[in-house]
Amino acid sequence: MLDKWLPQRNVPGMWQKIMAFVLIPLVLISVFFGIYAAGSDHFAALFTDYELDINLWQIFCLSVLGFFIAFNFWNYAVEKLIYKNHHYLDNDFHKSAQEPKSTYSFLDLDAERTSGVISFFCLNILLVFFIITYNYEQFYEVSKTPIQLSEETHERVNAVIMSIIMAILVIMFYFKSGFNFDPKAKLLKVLAKVWIVLNAVLILSAAAKNYEYIVNYAFTYKRLGVFAFLILSLVGLGLTFIKIQRQKRNAFLFNTMVWYFYGTVLMCSYINWGGFITSQNINRKNFDLHYHWTSVNFNSESLMKYADEKNNQKLKRDVQNKIKTEKSKSFLSKIIYYQTIK
Fold first, then answer.
1. Helix-, strand-, coil-residue percentages of the chain, each rounded to 5
2. Which residues contact 181 (CB under 8 A, 6 or more apart)?
3. pLDDT digit string (tens) for 210-264?
4. What would the pLDDT profile of 112-132 be if each residue is shown by its tens digit?
5. Could you give the angle at which helices 146-174 and 250-268 cross, rounded to 10 degrees?
6. Which residues have C-beta within 8 Å of that of residue 281, sequence separation ≥ 6?
7. For 90, which DSSP code?
8. 131, 165, 137, 166: which is closest to 153 by C-alpha?
9. Distance between CA atoms of 41 and 52, rounded to whole angstroms?
10. 12, 41, 148, 157: most buried, per Cβ within 10 A?
């Protein structure tokens, strides 16, 4: 199997020499050096009288990144097993799977359809009551201390996200096969879509409360993260609606949601959230300098601006010293953000 990862064509002369004269001997020497060092303390001691200023964790991460690039872009091989099982991730049903039939042998199609209708009808009623009580607790109960409000907000948001995940799983259970093409399942589809809409209302309620929480108590990483998870949950519900409407397989949700999650992470990586949080909170009367200095990253420019406005010379010196320290670090330890500060 290893030969599939090796070049299958002639390598240019220079690279051939590097591989033959440097890389292969270096690999062999490294392997046997490790073996010999493990077998003889005196042999190992010959090479331990000096200390190298090397960060092994950084070397490991760079090596993993290098192998990833090498075997995924330059010289990759895909096993036949992956090709054979690729059809399991198809978004659309094959014609052979479009015939309505029961999922389990102990339930006929009519019984399973009726079960779905009853389940979604009851779940819709239950969700309506939950939305009413949820919003009452959030917006109409007596105001509480910031700590209590923080704990309850996160608990409720976690409950909402878990509820959305379970809702999607239930829909995937009922619409994983023949029900998508059952002409008698119109009521079931309507009830499922109503449930999706109600879950979307629940998400919007949680988002509104989180926004109110931010307005009253400022931005933090977690509060922004809540918005990210709620948006992804809303996207998941939208894709579930599309799955039912366009008769897609469950794999459609997995395939599409992975890309949305990846895109979200990618887009978020372009934004300096620490700088955003500090710049938004800095104009508040209850601006917590200690929190933004110790718990928020990459906000030195905003803190410098704040120090100038408040004539806080101590803060200004601390920020300048931090920037100077970061700029003086070795190349692999440098953080790009601090290199851009003048």
1. 75, 0, 25
2. 93, 98, 99, 100, 247
3. 888 888 888 999 899 999 999 999 999 999 999 888 888 888 888 899 999 999 9
4. 778 888 888 888 888 888 888
5. 150
6. 218, 219, 287, 288, 292
7. -
8. 137
9. 19
10. 157
What average pLDDT does range 160-172 have in this prediction? Answer: 82
- As a whole number of angstroms, the distance between CA 190 and CA 266 comes to 35
- In angstroms, the first-to-last Cα distance of the chain is 52
Contact in structure between 164 and 236 (CB atoms under 8 Å): yes
List, in sequence order, every residue forming a beta bridge with 92; answer none if it has no partner.
248
Query: Quick one: tokens of 239?
Result: 């894709």
The identity of residue 211, as a single letter, is Y
Task: Say what the pTM is.
Answer: 0.72
Which residue shows structure tokens 């601390």?
318
- Calculate the alpha carbon distances from 68 to 61, 63, 266, 271, 333 in Å: 11, 8, 18, 25, 21
C-beta of residue 77 within 8 angstroms of C-beta of residue 4: yes
CB proximity list for 89: less than 8 A, separation 6 or greater: 251, 254, 255
Best CA proximity match to 196, nearest among 220, 171, 177: 171
| Position 19, amino acid | M
Measured distance CA(64)–CA(76) in Å, rounded:
15
Name the token pair of 83: 């090709």
Residue 239 · residue 255 · CB < 8 Å:
no
